[in-house]
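Our preliminary data section would be incomplete without showing what the modeling component actually yields. Below, a chain of 389 amino acids is followed by its predicted structure, encoded as tokens that our downstream tools consume directly.
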Amino acid sequence: MESPGCYWKPVLHILEDDPEYRLAGVLANAQQVKAVTGHKTDPHEARWLAHGLRHGMIRPSCIPPRAQRELRDLTRRRKQMVRAAAEERHRVQKVWEDANVKIGDVLSDVFGLSGQLIWEALVAGQSSAGEVAQLARGHARKKIAELTAALEGHPMRDAHPFLITRAMRHRAFLADEIEALDQEIARSLTRPDLSQPNQLLQTIPGIRTQAAAAMLAEGGPHMQPFPGAAHFTSWSGIAPGNHESAVKRRPSPTLRGNPHMKTALVESAWSASRTNGSEFQERYQRRQPGLGHKRTIVAVAHVLALRIYDVLQSGLPYQKARRANLPSSDSSGTTVEGSSTSIVGSRIWIPSRPSQIVFRTTRINTDKAKPSQVKSSQVIFLIGGVYRR
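Predicted structure:
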């Protein structure tokens, strides 16, 4: 069967629920089985699909269990509702700008308590800027003068109150829908096959209830569909792509992967990079000066995906990776053991260009090197009986 979109799902539901046949469906990736351009006809594609299936040329895609598919529908629906609520916020702010109401330049949150009281007063027809500004609450009362200046001279037309009222009512409706979805998602996570993985994921820094639910809905509670951690990160869309030709590797962007899983990983990476004492914060601080903020967040998300695979594969809570215990170092940065000087460096490989060195974990003892000759920014290697810095 060839079908775009979701039209193949009813056929799958009938086949997997049939008590007599219990036929196993094969879901093929359209990119891998599409016909040659210029020779695409419905009869030809039907023959090509039958030929590929008969000879084992079609690689089946993973079809999640029904419980996971239902949870996926809920989490994706919630994501759509949150996005729609953000769009309504932007529409309200656009109406404020059209009416020359500049409270967004004064208040940090236009939709907080002070902002809500102000827009309710404006919609009700209260035009005195000083009286409206007095409705501010909390820390916003320190900005009464700025609020008065931002509210003076606004040309509110008849359409503005109507548009703002409709948008705010829609936002309230969306908030109720999101709350109902949260309750249904929480109920789905109480199932025996999802409860323990949900708790395990939340032991990882940066992952909480909604992120854990989205990750379980997209990737599943177990890692059986993925042969290894690298396959999982590639499927998630946060692994570097491969572009190699003529034994030359060229820069390649990250793969597209699963957009919902990728979004959850990147959002959790933002939170994990700000968790004090976590390995994700250490990696972010170490790589951010060279890569920049956005690329570093993707790199942190890649490490986060590896930890997720390890936790779900082993069934054990997350534990921070520990560094190897190194010998004590003196103030000059030289590691001293007894009478000999030891540098924790690595086994090295030097290609044709001496400036490029690849390190691997080992220890090189330099008994002949004096501690005063080794600076904190230098490493001495013993290559062919000759010391090189």
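Residues 324-389 have pLDDT under 50 and may be disordered. Residues 336-388 form one domain. Preliminary results of this kind motivate Aim 1 of the renewal.
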